[in-house]
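Protein chain data
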Amino acid sequence: MKKVFLGLLVLPLIQATVVSANTDETTNEVNVSFAIDRTPTKPVNPENPSQPFEDNGKKVEFSPESDRGKADKDKPILIGTGNKGPFALDHVITEFDFGDVTEKDGIDTYTVIGNPAFYEQEKMFVQLTDNRSSRDTGWKLQAQFIDKLVSTDEEKHQLVGVKLLLPKGIARNSLTDNPAQEDTKNIATFAQGINDEAPTTIAETIASDRLRGKGVSTITWATKDISLQVPAQLAKEKNYSFAIRWTLVTQPDK
């Protein structure tokens, strides 16, 4: 949906008729200016995207990535992407922390630890906005490791075959009749193993409703259901880190 700014000056057609049969008339020009709304979307309640994100009744604003170090469990912050425009990712999961783990035989799976400093202790979510013209419909949300897991020391030891396991997320949309209810009619979500090999589709619009995926959509996961799968005998006694690229892709009508 494109935000429209109208600059209109509309005057009635003036027509003066006199007995002498002379006619005097004038017209005026009407101008309409269309502009793309590039205002960043504010945080929404991931379980009801028609409502603002609140903490104890107080609205929460997005904080920039540069404020990450200021986050505290007693004064949590919600980090936004800073993206603007009618088609944008507003918020992605801030932190995947698996703590100190012990390697075992076989493939090991470790559960993520939620961080209350980022409002991620129980749920994690992605927020996206689609206010494009009604002619432009459909999108895909994808994720991929930017590189393999790498140790943070000078050796830069790599782990091969690692996957971040995301269960099937719950999609909601601000324009549905009940935004607090899962939107299975217009958005499909998928349980996926994210890796460094190729972008993985986590959610996408479906069906043919002209408003599918429009407005603000959220995809949520229970923190306890997100895990990391690591092939055994690969990891060393080191700290490892990884980064994820989140991508919102246009998906033309099928």
Remarks:
- The chain has a mean pLDDT of 85.
- The chain has one domain: 38-250.
- The CA atoms of residues 102 and 237 lie 9 Å apart.
- Residues 38-250 form one domain.
